[in-house]
Specification:
By secondary structure, the chain is α/β, with parallel strands linked by helices. It has two domains: 164 residues, no CATH class; 104 residues, Diaminopimelate Epimerase, Chain A, domain 1 (Roll). It contains ten helices and twelve strands. The strands form two sheets. Strands 4-5-3-1-2-6 form a six-stranded mixed sheet. Strands 7-8-9-10-12-11 form a six-stranded mixed sheet, with helices on one face. The radius of gyration is 24 Å and the shape is elongated. The N and C termini lie far apart (59 Å).
Length: 283
């Protein structure tokens, strides 16, 4: 790829993030100007959010030509699709769908779709967003070494790494994790257990919640390897009120229970003992 071409003037989250991904993918510079036909015809020039054409085979990723009633989809969506990351991004990045709505429908319709007042949208603005978009908008070209280009490269790298490693992590959880019931009758709790494996991932609890969502399971608690020791962590899932781990604070093999009761750490490694601790933490 030769370079990325996007529109001049004001910048929005969709064209900014699309360029971040493309910078990280191709390590190329960005030009901000109106495209010429030769740009649109050249598949080695990536044209983003401008040009009136979506033709991935020629590296053109604009959405403004779509009809008014087209599903909310923006330049970022088109780039994610081309990189093979869109489905995972829609599953794992809760901010993506609102970003698509905001870019294609505007703040008023987006607020209605979210079921909130229009003013709530403004409350979600961050100085980080404002500064990065403004600095990006003021550039005519961005090259490696420019602070804005370097930050965009980091954003793109982190987003791609997050999506790719999370998918790997969920597949890993699916291979080893186990659902089971703890307790009896109406008192039974649904728990996801992640055993200790060799080798161990850096963060053993990472991906558990996403895996549960993907399975559509109703889960109350989690048991997973403690990354700081040889034992296990026990925690609520989605802050389930049926578990309060302060109730096991005095157990001899529990060395930490958070004062708010949502997590505990135990040196126990026997699964039956871990199940017993869950039962004792039942409210």
């Amino acid at each position: 790829m030769k370079f990325i071409l996007t529109h001049p003037g004001s910048a929005h989250k969709d064209d900014f993030l699309a360029c971040c991904l493309l910078i990280a993918r191709y390590n190329i510079h960005v030009q901000r100007r109106e495209p010429e036909q030769s740009d649109l015809d050249d598949p080695e020039i990536v044209v983003v959010d401008v040009g009136g054409e979506h033709a991935s085979e020629r590296s053109n990723f604009d959405h403004h030509q779509f009809p008014r009633d087209h599903e909310p989809i923006c330049a970022l969506s088109l780039v994610l699709k081309d990189l093979g990351l869109y489905e995972d991004a829609r599953s794992f990045c809760e901010w993506l769908e609102p970003a698509e709505w905001f870019d294609t429908r505007g703040p008023f319709e987006t607020a209605q779709w979210l079921g909130v007042e229009r003013g709530i949208i403004n409350r979600l603005n961050s100085p980080i967003d404002i500064t990065m978009l403004r600095r990006f908008a003021h550039k005519r070209e961005l090259h490696q070494g420019d602070p804005v280009w370097e930050v965009m490269n980091m954003v793109g790298e982190d987003l791609m790494m997050y999506l790719r490693t999370l998918r790997e992590r969920i597949d890993y959880v699916a291979q080893y994790a186990e659902f089971f019931e703890v307790g009896e009758g109406d008192e039974a709790l649904r728990v996801l257990y992640m055993p200790r494996t060799d080798p161990m991932p850096d963060d053993p609890s990472s991906g558990l919640a996403r895996y549960i969502d993907a399975q559509g399971e109703k889960v109350h608690g989690l048991i997973y390897p403690d990354r700081r020791g040889a034992g296990y962590g026990l925690s609520r899932h989605e802050d389930c009120e049926k578990l309060d781990f302060t109730r096991i604070n005095d157990e001899p093999d529990v060395h930490f229970a958070h004062a708010r009761g949502f997590v505990a750490k135990s040196s126990a490694t026997d699964l039956e003992r871990l199940k017993a601790l869950i039962v004792k933490a039942r409210v």
